[in-house]
Amino acid sequence: MRCVMLITGAMVLVAAVGQAARGADDSDETKIRGTWQLASKTQKGIETKIDAKGDDQQMVFTFEEQSLKVNFGPKGALVEKTGTYSLDPKQTPKVLDITVREDKDYTDAHAVYKIEQDRLYIRIREDCVQRPPDFEIADDDCITLVFHQVK
């Protein structure tokens, strides 16, 4: 009888862990991992589409577990920077903090974000210091970046 109870308890535990793991797969931390290509940028109410195949300024984010690679610049002359990031999906709006290393210096960016299907929206201020309050307010110093996920 004790053995049956132990096996039943173990089965319940395995099922609970499996369900928690499946739920974790839906977390923003899991969704953000991978490579994201800049598709458009909106600043001062003007949206600029980015042609990934053309000569436009490119920006590619690659998110891994707590680390980040950023490639940016004109096509054919991309510069790569590395850094770290943290998410706080429990805040409204959701919060993204990025630290990029540049030689011995660090640059911090405080942003808000949202993930919708294969799109990542990041909103920052030009100075990257003060976090935008949301995606709705039409502040002239805010920039909204829209990335599509590279499969």
Give the topology.
Layout: H1 2-24, H2 28-32, E1 34-43, E2 46-49, E3 57-63, E4 67-74, E5 79-88, E6 94-102, E7 105-116, E8 119-125, E9 142-150
Antiparallel strand pairs: 1-2, 1-3, 1-9, 3-4, 4-5, 5-6, 6-7, 7-8, 8-9
Structural overview:
The protein is α+β, with helices and mostly antiparallel strands and 151 residues long. Helices cover 19% and strands 50% of the residues. An eight-stranded antiparallel beta barrel has the order 1-3-4-5-6-7-8-9. β7 (105-116) and β8 form a beta hairpin. It starts with a helix and ends with a strand. Mean pLDDT is 82; it is low at 1-24.
Give the rounded overall mean pLDDT: 82
Beta-strand segment tally = 9
Give the overall shape, derived from the CA principal axes.
globular
Beta-strand share of residues = over 45%
CATH first level of the largest domain: Mainly Beta
- Helix count from the secondary structure assignment: 2
Q: Which residues sit in consecutive blocks of at least 5 with pLDDT less than 50?
A: 1-24
Main beta sheet = 8 strands, antiparallel, barrel
Task: State the CATH architecture of the largest domain.
Answer: Beta Barrel
CATH fold type of the largest domain: Lipocalin
Q: How many domains make up the 3D coordinates?
A: 2
- Rg is 20 Å
User: Ends: how far apart?
Assistant: 51 Å
Helix share of residues?
10-25%
Main attributes?
Lipocalin, alpha+beta, 50% strand, 19% helix, disordered N terminus, 151 residues, 9 strands
What is this entry, summarized?
With 151 residues, the chain is of the alpha+beta class. 19% of the residues lie in helices and 50% in strands.
